[in-house]
Amino acid sequence: MHEVSIAQMLLETVLKNASGKIIEIELEIGELRMINADALKFAFSVLSKGTRAEKAKIIIKRKRPKFKCLNCGYVWSPILENLSEDQKTLMHFGALAYSLVLKCPKCESNDFEIIEGDEIVITKIKFIEND
């Protein structure tokens, strides 16, 4: 479950970058990360116990993936919900597996680059300054 390691890195980052009690964390997570939001929130709640981030609310905004075909230059966003369960499972293996699952809708090439949708970004940390 990679959500635990992501929660650990998230906790370390927010504790390092906020000086008070952390009350809310906003994340932008690319859909290609295949992160289970509930598992991430649970892992964070367990790991943050006894820290300044305990009970912090986590808000997750998903970012749709965008690819650019290296053959024809077409830019597109696949609808991941339309993939079969087998294809979704393959997508967990990352960028190398994407070309096994996806093809350019214009020229059907599987030679493309990820423009966005594979990121995890902390967009906001709300905290209360120490008195």
Task: Briefly summarize what is shown.
31% of the residues lie in helices and 28% in strands.
Can you tell me about this structure?
By secondary structure, this protein is α+β, with helices and mostly antiparallel strands. It has two domains: 2-63 and 117-128, hypothetical protein PF0899 fold; 66-116, no CATH class. The protein has four helices and six strands; from the N terminus they run H-E-H-E-E-E-H-H-E-E. The strands form two sheets. A three-stranded mixed β-sheet has the order 2-1-6, with helices on one face. Strand 1, helix 2 (37-47) and strand 2 (57-63) form a beta-alpha-beta unit. The chain is elongated, with a radius of gyration of 18 Å.
Given helix and strand content, the structural type is alpha+beta
Coarse shape: elongated
What string gives the helices and strands in order?
HEHEEEHHEE
Fraction of residues in helices? 25-40%
The side-by-side strand order for the widest beta sheet comes to 2-1-6
Q: What is the third-level CATH name, the topology of the largest domain?
A: hypothetical protein PF0899 fold
Number of folding domains?
2
SS field, number of helical segments: 4
